[in-house]
Queue: 2 jobs
Job 1
Amino acid sequence: MKNQSREKLQQLEKNPQEYMARKFVKISKRKSFKRRREPKAYEVPHSNYFHEGRWKDEDLGWSGTDYGSEDYETDWDDYGTDWDYSIPTNSSNDGTSNLVKDLPDEIWERIFTNVSRDDLDLCTRMCHKWHRVIEGGSKRLTQRRVVYGRYCRDPNARFLLKVYSRRGKTIRVEDCPNRQNSGFYVFKNSILWCMDERVWNSEDIDRLEAYLKKLCDLGGERIPVKSFILHYHLRNIGQLERFHHFFPYYVNAEELVHIYGGDILNKKFWKCLEDFGPTTAVNIETSYYSTDVHRDAFCETIEPSKFFKEIDIHRCGFSEFNRIAEENGFEPVRQVLLQISPHERHKINVHRLDHPKLKWVLEATMTYKCALEWNKDKNQIFRYQYWRSRYNTLTLKIMEID
Amino acid sequence: MATESANGVSSPELNERDVVITTNDNRNFTVKIGVARVSKTINNMIQDLGESLDLSSGIPLPNVDGPIFEKVLEWCEEHKNAPEIKVEQDPHTRERKWFTMTEWEEEYFRKFLSHLWDLAMAANYLEIPSLYYYTCQKLAERIKGRTPEQIREMFGIEDDLTEEEKAEIRRTNVWCTY
């Protein structure tokens, strides 16, 4: 053993670089055998909003590739004890050179573009130089921290909104040091992942408006939200029109998702959606779960175009549909088959209505979830029934044409 | 032979020709033009010189030293026909999507682990986007998801902020956890 370590030392003296490199390879190989462990800092606090079945882990980006899944495989212990991961300072080993001071701001800025806003929050308090680079109004460092909110509906509560960052820091909006600007500091460089509101009666709309207004006033700017989900359970359209009127003033949403009951999908409703001119690009999505009604609803909903009115998507085959589509100057239909698991698959038809004369693009996605056995079975009638027994989803997306 | 015509700047024959590049420690490197062109700085020089390009006397690089240029050349050799890198952003968080590196690139950075920041400086000066971005990503790997103590140790950062400045930062950025 002693000989071995002496040999290692000699190697290190002779050729430090190669030795270090080899050692690094050794460790990185060993790492792969270790169980995947997620760093604690990334644990997101429990919130009811994520457990309603709508958002999966992938949606939140925890296990998605967006946030660099390879990062999770990094085992910190390796760096702390076994392997000194510090970067050797400049090749001139006079001890005075310092990586942080010697690298020009421009390069640090480029390095910082790679990390998340949560990491920037840490770095900004490290030293003058990093603070200057990060807070110096760089146009490259635009990343936003994702925050998750839980808000309080009780008018007597001391806080309006409780927000969590990915690093696990919690802030109550009213608890901030400067009351006047508290919201502004919370929402600066942040995006609220999801807001979820239910409307059962007209008082709900009043309450929602008051709440959004207060939050917006506190923040001094519109509330940045990725998805605003509105569950609308009212029968009349009037309140919805009201919502569409005040919503863009208070919320800067990237996506607006409406979830409705079935019987509201009619011509009048469609008109209301059509009139809604969002100031930001807002997608309106009508998710609709049903086995039977959706077809009629779809046919009614597509009123703005004569094209869709005249056609029954279910009865006409794809070739015919595409022929009519092309004759009318529309894009042909794309059919996508998604294999989710060995036992089920999704069949998605995307109907895109895109015409130079239209101000909006309508994208209708019809999803059929059906079992794989469906194909193998030779009994025609049984096949049909089996297919009907699964749910179908209709998603409508309206986008403003640039 | 003294002056070579560089009219057909993009012609394949020219890419096969050798050019001499001199670094600041007076080392001469004989490089194929096609390889040297990965660096936009050198490419611009070649184009600017045009007719008057003297392939034998070479191009001086006053800001790069020999050992580093050797490493950069290794990268250029591998990436001479590589397409332009694409920088993508997550639309919601506006975070940069990280590049996936090939086996060769991983090995390259593993080999020159202790020279990453020299490489970053050289790549910035020589304008080699692929090397520059990749090196910066490698450096950012050390910041990502770590605790403040780890970062401080890793980069050898001295705490040069006063208490008032820290309080100010804490006031303006409520998310600052450290």
Job 2
Amino acid sequence: MIKSIMIVGVGGQGTLLASRLIANVLQNKGVDVKVSEVHGMSQRGGSVVTYVKYGEKVTSPVINRGEADIIIAFEQLEAARYVSYLKKGGKMIVSTQKIDPMPVITGNAFYPEEIIEKIKALGIDITAVDALESALQAGSAKASNVVLMGVLSKVMDAPIEAWMKAIEECVPAKFIDLNKKAFDLGKNI
Amino acid sequence: MKKLMLGNEAVARGLYEAGVTVVSSYPGTPSTEITEFVANYDEIKAEWAPNEKVAAEVAFGASFAGARSFFGMKHVGLNVAADPLYTAAYTGVNGGCVLAVADDPGMHSSQNEQDSRHHAIAAKVPMLEPSDSEECLFFTKKAYEISEEFDTPVIIRLSTRVSHSQSLCLLSDRDEISNKPYVKNPAKYVMMPANAKNRHVFVEERTEKLRAYAETSPLNQTIDNNTKIGVITAGAAYTYAAQALGDNVSYLKLGFANPLPVKLIENFAKKYEKIYVIEELDGIIESHCINLGINVTGKALFGYLGELSQEIIADKILGEKLPFDEFSESVPVRPPVMCAGCPHRGVFYALSKNKVRVSGDIGCYTLGASAPLSSVDTTLCMGASVSGLHGMNLADPDGASKTVAVIGDSTFMHSGITGLVNIAYNQTNSTVIVLDNSITGMTGHQQNPSTGINLKGDVTAAVNIEALVKAIGIKRVRVVDPYNLAETEAAIVEELAAPESSVIISRRPCALLQYVKHIPALEIVVCNGCKMCLKLGCPAISNKGGKAEIDRTQCVGCGICSEVCRFGCIKNGGVN
């Protein structure tokens, strides 16, 4: 049985660190793991996607429509964009943050309203959290990604110590405490 | 314990374990991290070269001198390195020489979707194709054995999903390999006609030996699931097929992309009622099968465009689709944009405002083509901005006073210099803007010969762009700060009007560089709704009900918006 987690957001929001934390946690579970990332052009404020898959033997490193057990969206519009990747009965975790894409800034498109309600109306199990607020409380807006990992930890089968170790191994030393605090705030939402 | 590694990191580890001592590359997504990871190994002399041709020649030189060497690049980079490769195919190697080329199906970060396997076939060199990180490590080491046994450069073909996916790898110790003795051998290494004619005979014989080797090589794997359907596949496509089709089919997974085996494929095809070929981009395996008289189905189902996926394969072969929900409204696209505080923005704003035709190039500044700046007119390949501008001005001399080339510092080092030499030599009245942000930006901040720092982080010689341009024969050279819009615009207008060629160097380090100190974020005191700031395409500025709003978490205080606001509403803390 392969479990699939998708992280979606806007380039610069720290989705790569999030996937590396998840991978670090999984690495010690004795299962096969694959993580697929996007670098380069699309990182420049574009829509970014990272895939994490684990289980007995993972072949394809990517996740297609109808496959993801969990989608973590760092931004509401990105949640809407990738709803179709969620497996029937899958779970969505969404940060309530909104970032206007360039077509909205230039007035050529509209940012849809009430995205979370509309996703809920599809019958999808969705948890919306103000990760930015918790991150600011922890000390930096940049820690939203780790707040969301705290929220994820409640539905993933891994001990908290593994997450703490992952933070210690993946985050620069001077930001470890801040990120542990952000993780705790996410876990307790 | 196995370690989770990026495909590119695993190639780097393979180079380390294979005892490689010389690595030279030019960055290019999705290949860049190979060389960045290599730089962490003290045992390897690793460098950024100005371009892929130089990198290839460095690696071949090192091989001739007896060392195991490597060069890495993206798919279009191999076009640049093709010249030395096609003849190194004749000379062969002394120490093993391997190159990695990363294709980008789906064009996540590229200007075309070319299939590098054509280069291996045309150059007549072996090509190996791993499908995950563990194979990246193993195939890289194997490539050195093949290189030295068969006296040939060997290509490792990667793709975005192989290069940028992490999977588990088992690590081994490094083989310390000393240089092979250097023996002067002009018949092998001096490729003038008489010698090259003999070496071509060798190349053709080598290909047949390699094909025989490929017939039994463990890099080609057969997985017989006792089924009616057989699938011939390779690389990332194998991983998609394996998920989509599981053990409902049998597989011939080809790790040898060139030369392709004959008997192995014929024997595989005989065992199954129906044979599919599943390969990304071009139909190279399929054509090979057709040439062998084997009835296969491939491109008719899967086409030539973009990436394959388990979704496509399950649909086309099994007619199966997973159920899913869709968002009820249209979702606006989110294209990549120039970052808040990007020094390129001011230049493109000035060019756009003055309706200047822009011969563009490859880098972050290609984004100057996007709305709302919509400034760049053409983008072809590395360096083409400068040479292309000369061509435009030859064809349309009257347009020269309304046309510029824009090229980044790293791209200028890569292949812009020769184009500028051509402008000076052949005398068009051309205006070239070097967007010097003191780094190779798009690929993720690699140093280059103009930055004064090398791959290992040591201080080194820096090309003085002003002096270089003058030495080429361009007399009008000036430097502007693109955060100063008035100065930048005035320089562009003046140089376009000037009666001779000129180079404007727009100099400001990339806003994302760690050493760049930002002033506090800007604030809008009272917005009068003139919307001028929205024309900058800055992701930190949004339109909230007709009024501009600045996102203080993104704004770095570059101050350009305060320069364009008609009413002086944007408070600027002063640019450092």
